[in-house]
Amino acid sequence: MRVLGIESTAHTLGIGIAQNFPPYILANERSKYEPVTGGIHPREASRSHAENLGTVLKKALTKANITIDEIDAIAVALGPGMGPCLRVGATAARALATYYNKTLIPVNHGIAHIEIGNLLSGFEDPLIIYVSGGNTSIIAYKYGRYRVFGETQDIALGNLRDVFSREAGIAPPYIVNGSHVIDLCAQRSESKEVLDLPYIVKGQDVSYAGLLTSALKKLKEGYKLEDVCYSVVEISFSMITEVAERGLAHTRKSEVLLTGGVSASQLLDEKVKKMAESHGVKYYNVPPAYAGDNGAMIAWTGVLAYLSGVRMNPQEARIDQRWRIEEVDVPWRG
Ligand code: FE2
């Protein structure tokens, strides 16, 4: 069976097509809203998604070399995310499901990140480090659901990196030749010394807001941009790696999966890899095309959910901006 998945929770509009037999993923098309200045404006992003939806949908079907008739169900990320953006995907999914008489499958965005990671890695039960512009969580499966074993108390790791870079005047663009500008800046630090900045880990949670404020203050005080970048990167990555390590010891998982947009950072990859190796557990970093927000992950999770009997009446498909992963049963596991 085949599922078409729609992702529109933030800056990416993604449409993917997946099936329940190899090669599993048939298409993973997208358009990305990139603000010229500042951060993501939810309404502008949603307008961009609405404008591009038809084109991306057509591209996905062409790539998979199928027609809409060969699709069994429409999966859509109903949350968490930005309201106006989520509404574009939800509206499109309701329309497609109703007009073409397809089953509608609600998908939680965070769970989709995990399931595509499981598919690609072949992992069965990993500890997940999910780090992106909107999310920073340590997750593991326990008793029928994915549970959060640590998260940010304020801003997400990707948000810290983007806002710092923007305020420091080195972004946008945020990504240059596949690397985030803050990582490139950090690599140019000559001292490679970590400045005195807040390293805030509370129990299993992290807090990045204080680090952001203090780092910007250091710039104003005249510290070298490269040294501040280096310190922000070192401290923020060490914080998340520390809570991941404790999560690993606590849950006793034997696999570590790194995903989300920030997983593309080579510096984070090295840190987490070292931590996993020191515990003798397997490690997999999801490749960028599937680690950042994408439609294939929604389609694939749709396949798993569909086969477990998850369905939703199109009229009841409402978005939930704060839909936490612990609220979702995952009958395809366990
Ligand atoms: Fe995401």
TrEMBL record:
Reactions listed under catalytic activity: L-threonylcarbamoyladenylate + adenosine(37) in tRNA = N(6)-L-threonylcarbamoyladenosine(37) in tRNA + AMP + H(+)
**Which Gene Ontology BP terms does the record give?**
tRNA threonylcarbamoyladenosine modification
Q: Which residues bind substrate?
A: Y130, V131, S132, G133, G134, D162, D183, S265
Q: Which SUPFAM superfamilies match?
A: Actin-like ATPase domain (SSF53067)
Q: Name one Pfam family in it.
A: TsaD
Which residues of this UniProt protein bind Fe cation? H109, H113, Y130, D293
State the compartments where it is located: Cytoplasm
The record's comment on cofactor binding reads: Binds 1 Fe(2+) ion per subunit.
Molecular function terms, GO-annotated? iron ion binding; tRNA N(6)-L-threonylcarbamoyladenine synthase activity
Query: What does the entry list under GO cellular component?
Result: cytoplasm; EKC/KEOPS complex
Gcp-like domain segment(s): 29-300
General function of this protein: Required for the formation of a threonylcarbamoyl group on adenosine at position 37 (t(6)A37) in tRNAs that read codons beginning with adenine. Is probably involved in the transfer of the threonylcarbamoyl moiety of threonylcarbamoyl-AMP (TC-AMP) to the N6 group of A37.
Family the UniProt entry places it in: Belongs to the KAE1 / TsaD family.
How is this protein named in the record? tRNA N6-adenosine threonylcarbamoyltransferase
- Which organism is the protein's source? Fervidicoccus fontis
Q: What gene is this protein translated from?
A: kae1
